[in-house]
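Researcher: First entry.
Model:
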Amino acid sequence: MARNTRIIQLIIILILITFFFSGCWNYRELDDLAIVTGVAFDQAENPDKILMTTQVVVPKNLGSEGGNGPTFINVKSTGFTVMEAVRNYNAKLDRRPFFPFTEIVVFSKEIAREGIAPYLDFFIRDPEPRSQAWIIISDSDAQDLLEEFANIEGIPTRALRQMIERQQGAMSNIASSDVVEFAQAFHSKSRQPVASIIEIKGEGKEKEVLLKETAIFNEDKLIGTLDRSEGRGYLWIINKVESGIIVVEEPGLSNDKISLELLLSQSKMIPRITGDKLEIKIEVSMESQIAEQMGDLDLSKHDVLQSLERRQAAVIHNEIMAAVKKAQDLRTDIFGFGQAFTRKYPKEMRSLEAKWDEHFPLIEVSTEIKSSIRRTAVQTRPLT
C-alpha cells in the first residue's frame, strides 16, 4: 500500500514537472484536473447510450499526512458517445478529466461482442489519452473490475496493469494488447486483435481478481477465446514467450511430473506457397532447466534428458497446434500469418488478401521445435 502511494505521488510530481516546463500551465489549472488512471465501459440502462466509469486520483488523501479517505474514486457518466460521456462527467465532479496517465481501458463482454472500435476512436483520435493503456475485457460488468480492486488495493488500475505485466514475465500464457497494438491489428487486412480477459471469482473475503484467458477479435468484435494452453501456443507463434513452466511426465511407467523452467525462447514463421497450397512452418528454439521433480528417476542419465527434451518439444507442438486449430475454426488470423506471406510473397498476396478469412483456415501449419534442457552442476538426482 505504501509503495503504491509513493507511485501515485511520483505521478503527481511528474505532472507538475511537465506543466512547469511547458510554460503554459499553472497550479490553478492543475487544481482543475482529475487525473484519470482507468476507464471502464458498460451498456447503460438506455441501450442507445454507454456507461463510462472513470477512476481518478484523490490527491489530498495521498501520503501519511493526507486524508483518511480513499486515494481513488470512481465516477460514472453516460452519453451517446465517449466524448459526450466525458463532457457529462463535468456534472459529477468539479475537475476536468485528464487522460494522459490512463493505465487500463476495460470493456464488458457485452460491449466487446458488439464492437469496441467506436470507443477506441476517442483514445486514438484525441491527443490527450494515453495510447499505451492496456485493453482488458471483463468477464462481468467492466465497472465491477474497478470497484473490486478499489476495495483491496490502494492503486486499483495500477494493480491491474502490474497483474498483466507480471503474467507476461512469469507465465506467458495469456496475450495482451495496448490501445495502439489493438488498433494496428484492427486496421490490418491480414491480422486480427487479441486482448486479456479478467474475471472476478468468489464472494466476500474469498473474492479475487484473476487473469482468465485470451480474447480473440474479428476486427473489433469478440468472437472467441484461447485458454491458457492455447494462449501460450499463440505466444510461441508470435515469439512473445518470455518465461514459464512446462510440465512433462517422467519417462517410464510412473507418470510422475517434472517441471521445466523456460530460460530462453525464440520463434519465427517460415511461409511457403507451392502452387495453390499455402504452408507455414513455426520454428521454435528454446532452452529450459529442471525446476522440480516429483518422482525418483535419475535425471543425470543422458538418455533420460533426451527423452525429457522430446516430451518438452511435444508439449510446445501441441500448444501451438491447439492455438492454430482454434483460430482456423474461427477463420481469424490472430498470428499475422498473412503479414508473413505478404513480406515473402507480396505479388501473390495481392490476390489473396481480399479474402484472407477464406484462405487462412486452409493453411497447412507444421512445427520444428529445437528443445534443450540445460546441463548444470545443480542437483540432478532425486532426493528420495
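Researcher: Second entry.
Model:
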Amino acid sequence: MKKLIFTLMAIMLVLTGCTSKGNTSADGAADMSGYEGIGKEHHFVSEALPDMVSNIENKVEGIYYLGFATCPWCIELTPVMEDVASELNVSIHYLNVRDDAWKTNKLADRIMAFEETLPASATKSEGYVPYLIIIDKDGNIKTHLGTVDGHEPSKAKMTEDQVNFLTIRLKEMFKTVTPNA
C-alpha cells in the first residue's frame, strides 16, 4: 500500500511539475496583466524564478526586473521600461517577488547574497522593489532601484520631466544588453 501511495505521489509531482514557472505563458512572455498600460504584446519574459536567480548569480547577460503588480513604484516604472525595451528591442526578465516560488526557494536571500558581491558604487535593493539588475555580455553589472529621486507615487504620478529623465537613464543601461534577434 505504501508503495502504491508513493508511486501515485511521484506521478502527481511529474504531472504538475516540481517548480513554479512564475507568471509565464507558453511562449515565455511574462503575465503582466496586473500592470496598467502593459498590453498583451510586450518585452517582459519569464521562466522559473530559481533559474532566473541562478542566471543573475552566474552573470548571464540580461535585464532582470524584480517587482510586483501592486507596488506603486513598479506600476510607474513598468510602462517606461516597456517603452525603452520596445525602442531598443530588448527583453526584460520579470521576477515577481510575490510569486510563491520566490518565498519557497528563499530567492530573496540569494539576491541579497549576490548584492554583497557588487562593487560599493552599485545600488543595492536592501529588499526593496522595483529593482533592476542589468548584466552586459562581459558580466558588467548596473543596478537601478525605484523610479527617480524624490518621486512619491502615493502623492503624485511622475512628471513629464521625471519620465524623460528615467527614460534616458534606462536607455543608457539597456543599451549595454544585446538586442533580440
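Model: Note on the second entry: DSSP finds six helices and five strands in the chain.
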